[in-house]
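Consider one such protein record:
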Amino acid sequence: MAGHSHSANVAIRKGAVDKKRAKLFGKISRLIIVAAQRGGGDPTTNLALRYAIHKAKKSSMPKDNIERAIKRGCGESGGANFEEVAYEGYGPGGVAMLCDILTDNRNRTAGEVRKVFEVHGGNLGATGCVSWMFERKGLFTIPSSTIDEEALFEVALEAGADDVQNEGDIFEVTCSPDVFSDVSEALETASVQTDVSDVVKLATQTVELDAKGARKVLALMDALEDNDDVQNVTANFVIPDEVMAELSAED
């Protein structure tokens, strides 16, 4: 895993949630519900819903679960209304952190998230304190052993991707969120296998962590991800390859 690559940090936090499959489905259901509430139940005209359904399918979420969430978002079944909130703060070592929240009780969630930050040596900050360090992008990672770089360039760039980077074991494809679905469909049509396929927030500046700092930050991220209201946690840390190897040996 390339310590400096976008996908390294994406994969770290993705893995933390994927270990808790039921919790992951609950988070994605909320995402679908809110998208349907805001833009209707037709993914062809509701881009946010299309993203959410793509994420659900990528996570092997059952079709029935997806359909129930869409119906709930469209008001066809009862349930709480969720509010979309973003919390920002700093973790150990000055790492900038963004928490994407979907909650039916903002006061409860704010208190819980603030407590998690404090317990793990961080602090919740004011709106805007770190969000300027991130940009929203579509991100795909492809094992480099599965496709020729030139062939991937042709498929991705023709579909509207911004860039293709060779990170050793993987290729990273980035694109504007507006063309995420187009690039995703082009890769799928070309039978290109993706490990990560999501719209994410990528850091424009980073903080490099040693083993001690990495343990603290990853513990904070795990605790935040464990909260049902937290959809996603984004941070601007970088873990060098040798530190990643040390941490992996401890697992």
User: Anything to note?
Assistant: The longest strand covers residues 134-143. The CA atoms of residues 42 and 49 lie 8 Å apart. The radius of gyration is 18 Å.
